[in-house]
Design a protein that fits this description.
Rossmann fold, 274 residues, 16 strands, 2 domains, 10 helices, six-stranded mixed β-sheet, Hypothetical Protein, Haloacid Dehalogenase-like Hydrolase, Chain: A, domain 2
């Protein structure tokens, strides 16, 4: 085992997990082995409640990056200087008021507290509601603080209108990204300060890890900055096209144990250099 004293940041969905809950056991076993000599960091858009299982499975004691960097904390160590980033709830309220005709529903979170604007048939899997306290109702009446971000479900064809609105009304306070599920546009409202890369920089400083010993593996648009930041940026086989453009390396799909194969090959290359 030659991979030692590295920081290895790994995304969950599409990288180590598929279909919300089917984790890549082979890659997890190898990461657990590596965790004896390296700092393994989970960097995910998920909340704590739905990433805790994987954190515990690897028996980690490293910082956990949730909400794509809007929450950085150690789940079992209150002495760690937790970092929280949020958006102004009034910006979200304004968007809801002015764009009610295109909105199917919205939910947002403050750590593990969930605020759902309106129930729908399809919303369930996205909430990861097990272990979280959920409040349902018009957000203007239920959301009593600034959330880590927000997930909006809007009608197909609403993308341009949303982009123009956010740019015109929020003056750089809100960033927006899209993906598509079952004839619905899913978008994320988040702070420009929120990124996995920014959180990872803090973790590197915390452990005093040199940039030459940083690895990150991911598959989505929300992984781009993290992949650019590290020395060894790795894109999964089925990744966002923009991520493929910035990654120095590409591995197999999650179904084919891509994380395992990259790290195993990386370890072999280190052995050859000795």
């Amino acid at each position: 085992m030659n991979i030692k004293n590295y920081l290895i940041a790994v995304d969950l969905d599409g990288t180590l997990v598929r279909g919300f809950n089917k984790h890549d056991k082979k890659s997890f076993r190898y990461l657990k082995k590596l965790s004896k000599y390296n700092k393994i960091v989970i960097a995910t858009g998920r909340p704590l409640r739905s990433s805790r299982f994987y954190y515990n499975l690897l028996k980690l004691d490293t910082p956990l990056i949730n909400y794509n960097g809007a929450l950085l904390h150690k789940p079992y160590d209150k002495s760690f200087p937790k970092k929280m980033i949020s958006i102004d709830r009034n910006d979200l309220f304004k968007f809801l008021d002015d764009n009610e005709d295109i909105i199917e529903t919205v939910f947002c979170e403050i750590e593990d507290n969930i605020y759902l604007h309106k129930e729908t048939d399809f919303i369930g899997p996205y909430l990861h509601s097990d272990g979280g306290n959920m409040t349902i109702g018009n957000l203007k009446g239920t959301l009593n603080n600034n959330p880590n971000g927000a997930i909006l479900f809007t009608k197909i064809g609403s993308e341009q209108r949303m982009e123009e609105y956010v740019k015109r009304e929020f003056n750089g306070r809100i960033n927006l990204r899209f993906w598509y599920v079952n004839k619905v546009v899913v978008s994320e409202f988040y702070s420009p300060k929120t990124s996995k890369a920014n959180a990872l920089k803090i973790v590197c400083d915390y452990y005093n890890i040199d940039h030459d010993r940083t690895i990150a593996i991911g598959d989505g648009h929300n992984d781009i900055e993290m992949i650019e930041f590290v020395k060894y940026g790795v894109a999964m086989g089925k990744c966002h096209p923009e991520l493929k453009e910035v990654a120095k390396y590409q591995t197999k799909d999650v179904k084919e144990h891509g994380v395992y194969h990259f790290l195993k090959q990386f370890n072999k290359q280190l052995k050859r250099k000795k």
